[in-house]
Each structure stands twice: as C-alpha cells, then as structure tokens.
Design brief:
Length: about 475
C-alpha cells in the first residue's frame, strides 16, 4: 500500500474505531488553510462517499482578522472548497476587539467555537471536525504537566467531546503526526497557507514545539513524544474507569439542585476515595456551568479540604467556603456541601420531619437529631448544667404538648427563650447573638403542638425548662 493509502487508512480507521462520525451525517470541517486542516479536508473528502459513511462535508473558515494576510487565507479556503465541489461557509470577526482585556488566544478560541455553533446551526449539523493531530497532543500534554494538571488534563486532547447544544467536536487526525501530514500533502500535490505566527517562540505553544521538545528529544529521549502519548492513553483509561463511578456518586449524593445551586451529601462523598469524590465535585461544577478552564488543581484541593475531619462542625459556627473562578462558591454547612453559581447565600433547606420519643431524624444537611425520655436524675442534670455540651439539651418531658416535629425556620417564628423576659422573634434572637450566615442557616426548630420547644442548637423555650417538680426528662441532641 502506498504512503497516501496508509494515511487515508489511518484516518478512516481512527474515525471508525472511535465512532467519531456516524453514517449519513453533515460534518462542519473547520479549515484554517494550513497543512493540517487541508490534509484533513482532503482525507475526509476521499473517504466520505463510501457506503458505510455517506457524509456531507461543509468547509468552514473563520477570518480572525489578526494578520495582514487573513483575507488571503479566507480566499484560499473558499477557492479550495470550490475546486473540490464542497459547500463553504465563512465569517469575519474582529478577535482583537473581542478580546478586550483578555488574552488574544482565549478570545480566538471562544470565537471559533461560537462560529462552529453558528455554522452547525445553519447547515443542521451536529458534528464539527477539527485538525488537531498527534503532535498537538504531545505538546498539550507536556504543557499541562509543566503548568500543573489533574489526571483529566494528563489524558490530553480527547478524540471527541460534547460542545454547544447537543453537538460533538471530533478530531479524526489525532492518530497521525505532523510529518505524516506534510508527506501526504507533498505526495498529493496539495498546497497550503503558512501562518507566520507559528514561528514566534514568544508564544508558549511555539516555544514547546520549536525549542523545548527538540531539546528533550535530543538530550533525554528521542522517543519523548511517543512516551507522552502512552502516558496520556494510560490517564485516559483511568478517566474512563473513574468517570462513571463519579457520576453514580454524584447522583446518589445530590440532595437538591436548581439552575444556580447543588447541595451534596458531604458524608456520602467522604465515604468514597478522593479520586472519585473529586470527579463527582468536578461533574457538579460542570453541570452548573462553572468555567472549567479556569479551575486549577489547587481549587479542587481547597474544595476537598471541606471534607477534612471536623469541617462539618466548624462550618456550623463560622461557615467554611471556597471562592472559585466565575463567582462560584463551594460551602460546607454541617453535613452538606453546597456549590453556588454566585456570591449569594445558598437557599436554606426547607423541611418538616416528625420525631418520635424516643427517635431520631436525619436532617437534609447530614446532621442527626436524637431524643429520648428518661427518669429525672438530679445528679445527671447538675453534670449537664456544669459541663454543658453544645447541641444537647434537657427539657421537662411532661411540659411538651403532643408529638414533636423538627423543621426549618419559618417567617414569623417566635418563642420565649430560656431565662428571657418575654416572647422574642427568632430573627431578632439570632441577630442579638451576632451569628454569621452559615450559623443562622444551621438553626432548626423542634416544636410541639404549642410551638418551639428547642431552637437547636442554641436555646430551649422557657416553658419547657427542668424544675424541682420535673419527673421525666426529654433529652434532645443535634450532631
């Protein structure tokens, strides 16, 4: 088989093996005019008409207006599509103006994906093909190692990923190298445009390509590229194993969710290995639309610290929170981790749970309320008063009217606090204590038929206090 045939077979085999482009689909091919994208368009065109494929190809070019010859690139791709009898779609965008104070490369990347979405919408397509190849993958992995990355980043460039509204970005060239691409272009007599900025080693990617990798190959390992690709493949296999486990954990641990918040069971998450737990948190943030490119390994280490021993109890007093890019916040409140898409406080859990005497209930934030009735023991009561433990209270059981319920605070709640001069609204009572937002939200109301008997874990109602006439004690503990 000729070298040209081997190249086409490599593209076809990689595309089919990974299921990148199902039969009969319309494919938006992102074409810059460089050797990589020209070779991809030519190869896809050569294999698209087979019986099992029957693809419709659209050549799409975004003119970034970043270089003096940008219009020439657009004209070149338009002419190429015309000569190859392919439909063509292009747009011009002032990326430099779009960037504002942000980096040009990030602005260009955002502009490209927005453009691909518009192109896909225009042609009713859900597949977009781009020309990243094996050497791009090597450079990406090395860059991420140097910058710092997680296992997911170590896996390199994926062959396919979801983007936009139900669309898929595919990379059919990841199985071939830059040398193979240029040899294919030369053998087929294909011409391409050269981007002069590709030689600028002030750009990080170009420095890795033209200086760092050649030095590593020359001084340390001539097969460094293959070694990095093997490492990326091992990381990808590990990710493929861990991701479904994390998805199941997220599903089981999610207590509440809306467009801006997700409340997770910290105890359940903490019962799993950190590798799975961290991925579940990552998936939660992806679901809420967090800017994943801006999140570092350090951010996820800070989030994982919310699971440290004692974090749940400390969070009830002061609140534990991690500020994240894009205005996102991860908070620990008792037994719950709440991820919010803004700086506003997460909504308090709303609940109303019946309690037995004796009995116990588990609150939405993971804490447990237990109560039991015991005979009055004056010595035990004195010890309770002298060594009072937060969250544990003793009440006169005979002064409790009817069954108990444990519920969240409500507008208009009031009670007579132990030792207080009269009725106080719960809101004013908490304000006087100068509690933080997390501690205020951690307060629950334990009520009988007459109202609050214990504003847990802070104060019991005066009407339920133990006296010299008490015969039975109701012990209530929240932990």
């Amino acid at each position: 088989m000729s070298q040209q045939g081997k190249f086409l077979e490599a593209i076809a085999d990689f595309t089919d093996r990974h299921g990148l482009i199902p039969s009969g689909r319309t494919v938006i091919a992102g074409i810059s005019g460089g050797a990589d994208s020209v070779a991809m368009l030519h190869a896809l065109r050569a294999i698209c008409d087979s019986r099992q494929r029957s693809w419709r190809l659209i050549a799409a070019h975004l003119n970034h207006r970043l270089r003096p010859d940008a219009d020439g690139d657009e004209d070149f791709v338009r002419d190429l599509a015309g000569r190859w009898n392919l439909e063509f779609f292009s747009e011009k965008i002032d990326v430099r103006g779009l960037a504002g104070g942000d980096g040009i490369e990030d602005a260009a990347r955002r502009a490209r994906y927005d453009f691909f979405n518009r192109a896909a919408g225009k042609f009713n397509a859900n597949i977009v093909a781009v020309a990243h190849h094996a050497d791009d993958n090597v450079e990406t992995v090395l860059h991420r190692i140097i910058r710092g990355t997680s296992l997911r980043g170590l896996a390199g460039i994926p062959a396919r990923r979801a983007f936009g509204d139900g669309r898929t970005l595919v990379r059919p060239m990841l199985g071939v190298t830059r040398i193979q691409i240029e040899e294919y272009c030369h053998d087929r007599g294909l011409v391409w445009r050269t981007d002069s900025t590709n030689a600028d080693t002030d750009l990080t990617r170009n420095f890795i390509r033209h200086e760092l990798l050649p030095l590593v190959r020359r001084r340390l390992n001539p097969q460094a590229g293959q070694a990095l690709l093997r490492l990326a493949e091992a990381a990808r296999l590990a990710e493929d194993y861990l991701d479904p486990l994390a998805a199941d954990l997220l599903k089981c641990s999610c207590r509440a969710q809306d467009d801006e918040h997700m409340v997770l069971d910290a105890e359940m998450l903490d019962s799993h290995a950190q590798a799975v737990r961290s991925r579940a948190v990552r998936q939660a943030m992806e679901t809420l639309g967090a800017p994943m490119r801006d999140l570092t390994a350090g951010h996820f280490e800070d989030i994982d610290a919310l699971f440290a021993p004692g974090a749940g109890q400390r969070s009830l007093q002061a609140g534990l929170a991690v500020n994240l890019p894009g205005g996102f916040i991860a908070r620990r409140r008792g037994g719950a981790i709440t991820i919010s898409s803004g700086s506003q406080a997460p909504p308090a859990d709303v609940f109303e749970l019946p309690m037995g005497m004796p009995g116990e209930v588990k609150l939405p934030d993971g804490r447990c309320v237990r109560c039991e009735t015991v005979a009055m023991d004056k010595d035990a009561f004195r010890k309770h008063i002298s060594g009072h433990r937060s969250g544990l209270e003793m009440l006169d059981a005979d002064k409790v009217a009817g069954p108990l319920i444990c519920r969240s605070r409500q507008e208009g709640d009031s009670f007579v606090p132990l030792g207080g001069p009269g009725t106080r609204s719960v809101s004013d009572f908490l304000t006087d204590l100068k509690l933080g937002q997390a501690a205020r939200q951690a307060v629950v109301c334990i009520c009988d038929s007459r109202g609050i008997v214990y504003l847990a874990p802070l104060r019991i109602a005066d009407r339920a206090k133990v006296s010299s006439a008490t015969r039975h004690v109701l012990q209530i503990g929240i932990e």
